[in-house]
């Protein structure tokens, strides 16, 4: 009798397989196994270490689903197993700045659903990076974070475009800051020593007073508007409080003319209050509640029918709502694609006649969105602009968990370091040994493709100066630690003038965030605060002059301890070196260090401009100022007598 059989054949070489009849060994049928091919494309095919590329992978047999796909990026300085999202079959790749230029191989491994392993080699060319016109690498970014509404009012005509009659003394209303205001202060920021300006989201935010529902707050304090930019109602339009598209273009061009880059805050996780189906029952009676036309923008075609982009509540970290904000169902491809398009289109809308545009994004609420969306977002941005970078807000991120969550995975290029401010306070409180050991460990982990942005204060937490009880000496030594550390220093606006505040008070008394203050420009001319500004300006300009040393260099402790109340550590990069000393005690010290400089070398303290001469065997005696006087020395060799 004749029977028909179905066979699943596991194979290694993909050529052919012989099926024999166990009852008739002399008969067989030869079956041709369908060939399994891996096709790939990399764009751009040539990059330098400050750029990214996207690799796209396609399997010729569409009947076989891949179980996993990974790349071997060791020739680029990356991991041996760099996983590609099998839903996307694309990945953004990067190269370490320690890799020599030339052609590199990237082995692609595909494990099919039967467990068979297939390998194909992709190729990319790494070119030498040419730095022109004062440009800088991503890991050399020194970031100034400002709330646009609170920084500078450059155009009073856009202060109240919707007739809300804001009480500008209330911390939760619009105060009038705008894009023209930032442009007017670019010279201030340039002189301060920053090279990257992080501004809060620019998209159109909800216009109604969400605080009207604060039943436990005194009636005259029930105000809360989207002045901060994180409550979008239209991702395709610029918020009218900030100015016009021409104002944005002017800011970008003027910043670029000064060698500065613009980083814009973006939100993928959620939209503003009032946009989810049913929200009109709660707030629909309020003036300037989103119109039906606006709310309909968040309905899209999913599986052939119009559906809301928002999920219906939930407390899950990813598939749930944050603070009751309408949460996008980013795990649905159609929703993901729409949000990514809205955000990436801004690179085109912001492009000026000179060809400049937004340089970087700061990404909000990273831990509340699944990885596939972040990979797709990074891929799309890289396809538009290989130099474009992302720094993410993954609440609680530190060097101990950043590499497990987001870094070196084709998602974020950097994360904000939420641990650093605590280490800085510990250091200012005298825990010298523990913090120095930690920063040496952190220094060794960071690279140009995976770095961290260290900050002392932010808009979501108590200001550092508030946390240390107003002790200016502690702020000065903490900022010295921050600015001389590897990673991207993030300066919170006004911190350099001694501004600070608590994050939130007693809501029953109507006490809101006090750390989102109006920039007090009068302090710049006030001697009580001017010395803090000079401290920041001095340190930031030293960092600018020795940018690669501080952004990329090694770190090694030289001398100091908890008992001595100071530390001296050495930063080294290629043929450059600097000795950094920080004193946490509020009294001057004369200290002895041993350097590797030859005797008779003239050494300059860049902080004070004092000069010293190295004695025999590299010995050096230096003055370390009290913490209230800056507490800092930064020593570099100038010449040999």
Describe it for me?
This protein is of the alpha/beta class and 641 residues long. The protein has 16 helices and 30 strands. Strands 11-12-15-18-19-20-21-22 form an 8-stranded parallel beta barrel. Strand 23 (554-561) and strand 24 (566-573) form a beta hairpin.
Q: Which features characterize this protein?
A:
641 residues, alpha/beta, eight-stranded parallel beta barrel, six-stranded antiparallel sheet, 16 helices, 21% helix
Task: Compile the SSE list and pairings.
Layout: E1 16-21, E2 24-32, E3 38-43, E4 46-47, E5 53-59, E6 66-71, E7 82-84, E8 90-93, E9 102-112, E10 117-126, E11 143-146, H1 148-151, H2 179-184, H3 186-192, E12 196-199, E13 203-205, E14 232-238, H4 245-257, E15 261-266, H5 280-283, H6 292-295, E16 299-302, E17 305-308, H7 333-344, H8 346-349, E18 360-363, H9 371-384, E19 389-392, H10 402-405, E20 414-417, H11 420-428, H12 432-445, E21 451-455, H13 464-467, H14 472-483, E22 488-492, H15 527-545, H16 547-552, E23 554-561, E24 566-573, E25 576-583, E26 589-594, E27 601-605, E28 611-613, E29 619-624, E30 632-640
Parallel strand pairs: 4-10, 11-12, 11-22, 12-15, 15-18, 18-19, 19-20, 20-21, 21-22
Antiparallel strand pairs: 1-2, 3-5, 5-8, 6-7, 6-9, 9-10, 13-14, 16-17, 23-24, 24-25, 25-30, 26-29, 27-28, 27-30
Helix pairs in contact: 11-12, 11-14, 14-15
Q: Please state the overall shape, judged from the principal axes of the Cα atoms.
A: globular
* Terminus-to-terminus distance: 103 Å
Q: Please estimate the helix content.
A: 10-25%
Q: DSSP strand (E) fraction? A: 25-35%
Regions with pLDDT < 50 over 5+ consecutive residues?
none
Major sheet: order of its strands? 11-12-15-18-19-20-21-22
How confident overall, as mean pLDDT?
94
> Which structural class best describes the helix and strand composition?
alpha/beta
**Oligomeric nature of the chains:** single chain
Query: Over all CA atoms, what is the radius of gyration?
Result: 28 Å
Total count of strands: 30
Largest sheet: 8 strands, parallel, barrel
Number of helices: 16
